[in-house]
Amino acid sequence: MAKLQVAKPAAGRSANEQQPVKTVGFLVIPNFTTIGFASAVETLRMANLAARKPMFRTVIIAASLDPVKASNGMRILPDHSITDAPKLDMLFVVGSNPIVSDHSSRPLLNWLRKLAHDQVPLGGICTGSHLLARADLLKGYRCTIHWEDIEALKERFPGIIISNQLFELDRDRYTCSGGVASMDMTLQLIAREPGGRDIAAHTAELLLCDRIRGAQEQQRVPLRQKLGTSQPKLSQMVAIMEANLEEPVGLEELARLNEVSVRQLERLFHKHLQRTPSQYYLELRLARARQLLLRSESQVRDIALACGFVSPAHFSKCYSRFFGVSPIGERKQVASLH
Q1: What is the distance between the alpha carbons of residues 14 and 76, in angstroms, rounded to a whole number?
Q2: 20 to 30 A from 10, CA-CA: which of 136, 208, 249, 293?
Q3: What is the tally of structural domains in the chain?
Q4: Cβ proximity of 297 and 100 under 8 Å
């Protein structure tokens, strides 16, 4: 195995003044997402190569020392359990897919609270934000989570501030939406280290990453960006629809708010979205309902009301017609896969 080379101290700076190696923990729970986990771990490993010195040491932690199964079926052997974890400079919770509340045991939540009490910066990758929220460690912080889970997190924890951005670095809380966004977040954290901007840039090159995305970038491309600047009224109408799923706005009111006739409104939707306004609105509500159905533990009747359906029966009929399976049936199908 090749020996890791350490860069010589800069002029005027002795070796003992070099920055100490930071120990970064990754808490993995059953069904954790491997892409978010690997994107962060590999970025830290590459940073050591880019810096030509060890900057970060990564350790894998779990509730116990038993192998942990990932969402893709792979199993990983933790280095430590929460009872014998080393002193950490930072910890990331790697969330499960889908979210399973049973994985957040009281000892696990208490351990996270103790780390927060000891002023260890805490992060969440993908649905890891959900576990931090369950431990009551996100109040007063901006955070993010995968876009499929945003509404479920809002429903469960209405007091926390949730954004649609790729990642959020708010004081000592670092959360990202998952996938390769954990690489972007990790690169930004590396850039915060002394001399880290050049190291982060070199790390990105080693990872064949053409640019480091910023936290301000959104997870999904808004419709107004897809349409460009030529259809501001259509973009505004869709934004109103998205903001009013629980109590849908009537077409006449939607037209009035945007100073167009109902016929003009219908023509815009037909031309650019290939749907009637009512069809598009229904699809938005069904998409939101599906997110809540599969990414939260809310009852079907509560989901129906939250998405503007007059009754669970009406919701089930519309859902079955659009997705080809009933809400309860789809929830059972997904549960059987995990």
Answers
A1: 40
A2: 208
A3: 2
A4: no
Q: What pLDDT, in 10s, does the model give residues 172-202?
A: 999 999 899 999 999 999 999 999 999 999 9
Same domain? For 98 and 148 the reply is yes
Q: DSSP labels for 209-231?
A: -S----TTSBSS--HHHHHTTS-
Interior CA angle at 90 toward 87 and 94, to 5°? 115
Distance set, CA 317 to CA 282, 310, 311, 312 (Å)? 12, 11, 10, 9
Query: Per 3-state DSSP, what percentage of the chain is helix, strand, and coil (rounded to 5)?
Result: 45, 15, 40
Q: What is the pLDDT of residues 117-127, one digit of tens each?
A: 999 999 999 99
Structure tokens at 70: 């990932």
CA distances for 25 relative to 33, 59, 163, 254, 284, angstroms: 16, 5, 25, 50, 39
Q: Which one-letter DSSP state was computed for residue 17? A: G
Task: Judge if 71 and 44 occupy the same domain.
Answer: yes
Band of residue 334 on the pLDDT scale cut at 50, 70, 90: confident
d(CA 40, CA 112): 20
Predicted pLDDT at 247: 93
Same domain for 158 and 304?
A: no
**Which residues are 28's β-sheet partners?**
94
Q: What is the C-alpha to C-alpha distance for residues 85 and 279, in angstroms, rounded to an integer?
A: 53
User: Do 38 and 159 sit in the same domain of this protein?
Assistant: yes
